[in-house]
Amino acid sequence: MKQAILKTVMCVGFLMLIAGCKPTIPSPYIQPDEMEDILYDYHLADAMASASGNDSVNMVKYHTAVLQKHGYTEADFDSSLVYYLRHTEQLKTIYENLAKRFRDESVALGGSAGDAFANVGLTGDTANVWREETSLVLAPQKPFNQHSFSLKADSAFHKGDVLMLDFNSDFIYQDGMRDGVVMLSVRFSNDSIASQTVHLSTGGHSSIRVSDDKRLGIKEVRGFFMLSRSQSPGENTTTLKLMIVSGIRLLRMHASQEKPEMKAQADSLSRDSSRQRQPLTPPSTPMIPEGELNKPMTR
């Protein structure tokens, strides 16, 4: 009995020792929980500034109010941000927590603009085939600047299908040019590829689509969300730059029996999105060689 108690005490002591050795954030810097709360409020402040119609002026006021709310100065925030940018694992944890909070907020509010598709698919002709996280937080620093996805087609995909990537985006920027990039690519049965790319510089609701117009059959769907690093000379690389993507859906729409209706539905949804943002690439879906998709991206 005494030996069992002794072993238990030793185990507890060992666990306490491990916990005591866990890396902590130096006291001069904002601690992770507080940093997460500040970044969360920054997101709300950024949305308020965008809605006010005077981003450049109100954004500074709202961001200052956020720091005052949490009891920190701009110097405190900037020095802490530099620390986190140099300790990417801790920053990654904060990003993951933020993505969950943004996702939970969207669900609690009944969703946002992307929920126009909430009732789509009751007939079985349309389905949301997205199986990854529905919210992402991207920063210009690697490896947090890009999220890639890939989906193998199965028997649920039909010839002539239309694929639409639908999402909401928001930016939290202290300075610099905003350049988010989203790409959707489809590999067909003959290994030809069609793709669409859109550049984002403001928050809002967007959707891009690729159609199997030649009814070849779809083998694979790929794509990525990316936040490009600004190349502006002299720009501060330690200021806050985030792109939040939420409400992500990848809609697969059959067009075999109800092709006119499905096409009209997709056209209507694309027009709604294009009113808010026009892609910088032509709206066609050119066929490109397989090797082009796998070339390294340049910034």
From TrEMBL:
Residues 255-299 are annotated as: Disordered. InterPro entries: DUF4296. Residues 26-105 form the DUF4296 domain. The keyword Signal applies. Keywords: Signal. Residues 1-21 form the signal peptide. The keyword Signal applies. This is DUF4296 domain-containing protein.
